[in-house]
Write a structure and sequence with these properties.
The complex is a heterodimer.
Chain A: E1 6-11, H1 17-26, E2 35-37, E3 41-49, E4 55-65, E5 68-75, E6 81-90, E7 97-104, E8 111-118, E9 122-132, E10 135-145, E11 151-162, E12 168-177, H2 186-190, H3 211-228, H4 230-233, E13 245-249, E14 252-263, E15 268-280, E16 282-286, H5 289-292, E17 297-303, E18 318-325, E19 334-342, E20 350-357, E21 361-377, E22 383-398, E23 404-411, E24 416-423, E25 427-432, E26 435-442, E27 446-459
Parallel strand pairs in A: 3-12, 10-18, 16-23
Antiparallel strand pairs in A: 1-2, 1-5, 3-4, 4-9, 5-8, 6-9, 7-8, 10-11, 11-15, 12-14, 13-14, 16-17, 17-20, 18-19, 21-22, 22-27, 23-26, 24-27, 25-26
Chain B: E1 6-11, E2 33-39, E3 46-56, E4 59-67, E5 78-81, E6 88-94, E7 101-108, E8 112-122, E9 125-135, E10 141-152, E11 158-164, E12 170-176, E13 180-193, E14 195-201, E15 218-225, E16 240-247, E17 253-261, E18 269-277, E19 280-297, E20 300-316, E21 322-329, E22 333-339, E23 343-347, E24 350-357, E25 361-374
Parallel strand pairs in B: 2-11, 9-16, 14-21
Antiparallel strand pairs in B: 1-4, 2-3, 3-8, 4-7, 5-8, 6-7, 9-10, 10-13, 11-12, 14-15, 15-18, 16-17, 19-20, 20-25, 21-24, 22-25, 23-24
Classes of the chains: A mainly beta, B mainly beta.
Chain lengths: 463, 375
Amino acid sequence: MRQPIRFFTTHKFIAAATATILLGAVLPAFAKVDLVTLPRRNAVQLTIYNSADLTLVRDTRDLTLVEGENTLQFSWANTLIDPTSLDLRPRRQADQIDILDLVFPARVNNVGIWNIMSRAVGKVTMDIDYFTSGLSWRAFYMGTLTPDEATMQLQGYVVVRNDSGEDYENAQTRLIVGKVHLLDQIAELSRRQYPYGRPGMRPVQTPMASPMAMRSLKNAVMMDMAHGGAAESESDRFEEAKEIKKEGLSEYFLYTIPGTETIPNGWAKRLPSFDVADIPVKNLYKYNESRYGTNVIRFLSFKNDTEHELGETPIPGGTLAAYRALEKGADARLSYEGASSFQYIPVNEDVELNLGPAPQVLVDITRMNTTTKDYLFDQNGDIAGWIELETFRVRINNTRPVPAKIEIPRNAPAPLWTIENSGDCGRYQKIDAHTYRYTLELPPATPREFTLLLTSRYGRRAE
Amino acid sequence: MRRCLFSILLLCGLIGLPGTAPARVKLVALPDRSDTQINLDNPTATLVEEERTLTLQQGRNQVDFSWKGVEIDADSIRLNVLTQPESVNLLSVSYPPAEAALVWDLSSKEATDVRVRISYLLRNIDQLVAYKMIADKQETEVALKSFSVLRNFSGEDFSESRIQANATRAFEGIDLPHEETLQLLALDLPQVPINKVWTFDAARLPWDPEKVDGNVGIPVSYVIKNSKTSGLGGEALAAGRVRVFQRDGQDGTIFLGEDDIPLTPDGEEMKVYIGDSRDIVVTQRQMKKTKINIRRSGNRIILYDTDEQITATMENFKSEPASLTMIQHIPGEWTMRDCNIKYERKDAGTLEFQVELQPNSTNQLVMDFNRLNVR
């Protein structure tokens, strides 16, 4: 399999002609080095972020060290690795191994050399950490409502995509939920000619790999995949779907996919994240003229808590496609109810999914009357204050075959105002200094009407 | 491949100065450079000091110092005679026309070898400081490393040089060729205590997150005190970029975020912003804002007070406690009538509240205040 990332360990006192050729091809300036070994990759761990184009890679390899001075060359041509993030650590015997420095040699691109002083001899397992760009993941969801829309089955998936330029074979894959603070784009750092730029200048960037080179990469992947295509068919045994392990760390959530995954460059992989049935949901319809105009917007509402069969972890942001089973049973046909993108949902937080306009629930608010009274005048005869009375008729009609909960928030622009309601207006609530709200619950196929009188005091009448 | 862009020539004493460049004769000896020190303690300029041995004749000697392919501030070039300074006098310094060069005119009492130190400001060579922190899983301490990243794009190769990174730290025997970047470990402290803080500033964050498309995060920072009690102190921590990781309990780490920190003097705190928390939610509302005590000129209001109430609901969805710093702003002249949480007045219009949020809890701040004499 193609492997753009290359490692060489070198020791200065043993001669081997073939190895010299290998190294010379990569780094002519260091042709004085005599022995080159290519350590195999033992394991690789990918920690992929969804809020930024960022993946933390841990590459674990066994290096054979000699006592004294050793060098480890790392090269990353045609990848999207951020060289300023390179970090080398021995897993064991750390007290016997000193990482002296990391050199980005002059006039050589995409190469870093660690100088290592070792008192240990023989095989040493090393972790090489670095950031790369080009790997990403996203979450998406399928929600299936029961015919009465009282509960929902929620199925979550993650899709991991690899456009990093590097094939990751048998990688332990972890996904991070949370917003990370990044100062530079990793992709831009990876394209710098000099890892840390030049003094006194803006970072000099080299162009992306040419289209020809990109094509060449893709062809290589295709060939690799064709070559390795037997991997799936060679396993004839029945396997359970993987269950992602979830864990909170700092302000993030870490999703660990069990086992390992092979994600060649250019490929994506979809994995089930969770599948929860019987989540109690509420259908909420909102009529908010200032936000949505005169449309009634349907919201699917539930809470990310244990009462709703959820609440173990936050739910990463993504898109949910909502369906409704038209009858009970596993073979029920479905109707598409709408889709909604949502952001990260913490544990115990209410969820409101905006499914878009709901033309089957009607709200009509009509101004029926406006009067003013109790004018005050100042010493010049100008108006100094007054009271305005506005009467609105509110008509609501739930034409759906299921109950509907409807919220109607409204604004009151006057500095001082009161409301008088007549008729069944449901629950009336003052939200803040300029906002009030009605909440009504209507049975199936039921109309409702009430009247509200808004009394607004202006000028000196508001004092 | 070595580059030799500087040349120092001892000239025969027969040439005329000042003269045109082609007329100058330049050859006697090429003294080797030794004991080079690159001073990077000042982030705005790099001072190079190098020592050479000059073989002087009795009487007048001219030392030609020229450079090509490097940027030297000619006014910064200094010559200091280290051995037998009493027998060598610097008579004058001349600048040949249209050349990157200068000529020192020295007078020596006798024919002898003298050691001199030449110093100059060299451009395009500098140092960046990069920090790496790895927090423990409980976020109570970090392993802190700092690296000096030396960038040499000056046009000159340096070998076996002493790098003075700051007032107290130097690296010896460093090779630094032109166009090389070298990362050296400067500081390695396995346990430095930290405080984790959340900050809501009402002037910078939206009041009602529900009305914002997208998550609203509360900024989260680690605070480290540059003091002996933290294992630090004694020197300022240089400005630089910090990358913060956290141990994941599985023999690995995750990346938490990065920040640029300014110079942190001894005894002061370094605050590293690592990202935003979406498990702390603050919803702030203006519940009342009315004008009172109105004064008029004719029909025009010229002076009034306000009667205001602001509430802020602080929800902690985490299963751990959180220390929230809430910053409120009341402009102009004001008086607090009632406030249910103690605050510290940071300046005339800034109030700071320290609120300890229990796990999975909701707290509420209610401020009743009057703004006075609003015009």
